[in-house]
Design goal:
With 331 residues, the protein is mainly alpha-helical. It has two domains: 147 residues, no CATH class; 131 residues, Tetratricopeptide repeat domain (Serine Threonine Protein Phosphatase 5, Tetratricopeptide repeat), CATH 1.25.40. The protein is built from 15 helices and four strands. The longest helix has 25 residues. About 5% of the residues have low confidence.
């Protein structure tokens, strides 16, 4: 098992321990047995706006039960299609078919809810749940902050990274736009400031915090530094993040971009080659490397990388234009 695989598995085990702590906390107020009877509203789209499942939990489910129903589950969670009943609902059991690995929000349902939402009228927990203000999610919901921290630690080990980090309120809570008073930590605050274009304030917020320098936190800091034009500092943050997550494609790619902005083309190209060794179909790296050869007038070499980039991302018009230039098709 590779280092990245071992790290993923260790985080999955930490997630299982978190679930166990949450279940113990919720069991104190729960009725014995299953009081829900034939109600399955929490497993359907009826009366519920959305289920909130983190990237860590999605990959945990895939690891433990397989990927067969995962795409339909993602569609169900996002409410982006016609999946009205959770694909993991088992008609024969009349209950969850993956009960032992069900997500955090499913375990929490009926016990806690934000004031802005409501339980379905038929829910047996209605009127017994603990209600909290959305902005106090981290303080009121048991194990919520711990889940946030695990999701951040998992970030460099995901199979498919998101392009930009998000405040935890966008993934691990209600999915609503983060409230300015949301009780997240300094990193959440910095990400909100960044999204508002207040980069200097975002950087100051991080500088004054005592956050652990995880790869995710360092990546967030690098984006803020990059936005301020501090490319050498951004490269330093990314290089530090790579010490713990040396197989993270996104970190290598962003490091290459910042090194190019610093004028260090040789080191940047080395980073891009490392990126491609880790993920041969990474279109941005292929395109950037092809672009470097094109700038030096090495059209044959440029074509090799740009043709591969175009195959990996045929919708990117900028790649097509560079490829046409490399081939001499323009003019």
């Amino acid at each position: 098992m590779s280092g990245a695989s071992e790290r993923r598995e260790s985080l999955f085990r930490l997630l299982e321990a978190l679930y166990s702590r949450l279940d113990s906390r919720l069991a104190k107020g729960a009725a014995e047995g299953n009081p829900c009877g034939r109600c399955r509203e929490c497993c359907t789209g009826q009366g519920l706006s959305h289920h909130n499942v983190t990237s860590l939990e999605l990959e945990y489910i895939e690891e433990r039960v397989g990927a067969e129903k995962l795409q339909r589950f993602k569609t169900f969670v996002a409410r982006e299609g016609d999946v009205e009943i959770c694909p993991y609902f088992d008609e024969s059991l009349w209950g969850c078919g993956i009960y032992s690995v069900r997500p955090f929000s499913c375990r929490l349902f009926g016990h806690f809810r934000s004031r802005e939402t409501a339980l379905p009228e038929v829910c047996v927990f209605r009127g017994q749940e603990e209600i909290f203000e959305t902005r106090h999610y981290m303080r009121k919901v048991p194990q919520a902050a711990q889940l946030r921290d695990l999701v951040r630690r998992f970030w460099p080990f995901q199979r498919a990274l998101t392009s930009h980090p998000r405040a935890v309120g966008e993934e691990a809570t209600s999915g609503r736009k983060a409230d300015p008073l949301f009780d997240g930590d300094e990193l959440d605050q910095a990400l909100r400031l960044q999204s508002e274009g207040r980069l200097q304030e975002a950087l100051q917020t991080l500088a004054q915090s005592d956050l652990e320098q995880t790869p995710y936190a360092l990546y967030c800091a690098s984006l803020i530094l990059e936005g301020l034009g501090l490319h050498r500092d951004a490269a330093g943050a990314l290089a530090e993040a790579l010490i713990e997550a040396p197989d993270c494609v996104t970190l290598h790619f962003r490091l290459a971009c910042n090194l190019l902005s610093c004028g260090d083309a040789e080191a940047a190209e080395s980073c891009l080659l490392t990126t491609l060794a880790l993920q041969s179909d990474h279109a941005p790296s292929l395109a950037l490397l092809g672009g470097q050869f094109l700038l030096r007038g090495q059209r044959d070499e440029a074509c090799v990388y740009l043709e591969q980039a175009a195959l990996c991302d045929p919708e990117d018009g900028s790649i097509q234009r560079m490829l046409e230039t490399a081939r001499g098709d323009l003019g």
